[in-house]
Amino acid sequence: MTDAAFRAAAVTAALLFVAMIVTSPMGCGGVWTLCTFDAPHLPYGAGTARAYLAALSDGALWRYLWIVQALDLIFPALLCITLREAFERWAPEALARRLSKLAVFETGVDYLENALIRAMLKNPDGFADVIATATSLMTLLKWLLLALLFGALARLWLGQRRAPR
Q1: CA end-to-end distance (rounded Å), the chain
Q2: Looking only at Cα atoms, what is the longest distance across the chain?
Q3: pLDDT score of 36
Q4: What is the 3-state secondary structure (H, E, C) of the chain?
Q5: pLDDT tens per residue across span 98-133
């Protein structure tokens, strides 16, 4: 990937993330501070998920299903590509390979989380309790993996910036 393509991928991923935040439902009746299933950093259960869905207006539910979820089909893959390119550029080969595999695994977790969220959004009153529990666990795992990946990325980037040219 060229430097320009790498920068474009990173900027596009950042813009997609901002677009998902801006289009996410903002009024969730105080169920969560950040009004999206992708955001909670603490486990939640089916009751909390149902309360969140009940607090969403029909327009907010539609926006989540058809705008936020559509953007979230593109974002994980683009983030993965960008992270893998950064690791390839800045990490020793063996470490880059391990971090790239972790980025791919995180992408899979994110897509599984998105599928579970969609199941709850499509059937707000009738989803099985285990779906909310599994979604919560996938969200926690996703954030843990992202913290590890971005921590590694920051360390590699800072090390690369300090290296003599």
Answers
A1: 21
A2: 60
A3: 67
A4: CCHHHHHHHHHHHHHHHHHHHHHCCCCCCCCCCCCCCCCCCCCCCHHHHHHHHHHCCHHHHHHHHHHHHHHHHHHHHHHHHHHHHHHHHHCCHHHHHHHHHHHHHHHHHHHHHHHHHHHHHHCCCCCCHHHHHHHHHHHHHHHHHHHHHHHHHHHHHHHHHHCCC
A5: 999 999 999 999 999 999 999 999 999 899 999 999
Residue-wise pLDDT for 45-95, tens only, equals: 899 889 888 888 888 888 889 999 999 999 999 999 999 999 999 999 999
- For 137-157, write each residue's pLDDT tens digit: 999 999 999 999 999 999 999
Angle, alpha carbons 47-64-111 (nearest 5°): 85
Q: 110, 142, 119: which is closest to 46 by C-alpha?
A: 119
Neighbours of 30 (CB within 10 A): 10
Residues 6+ away with beta carbon under 8 Å from 30? 55
Which of 59, 58, 54, 29 has the alpha carbon at shortest distance from 125?
Answer: 54
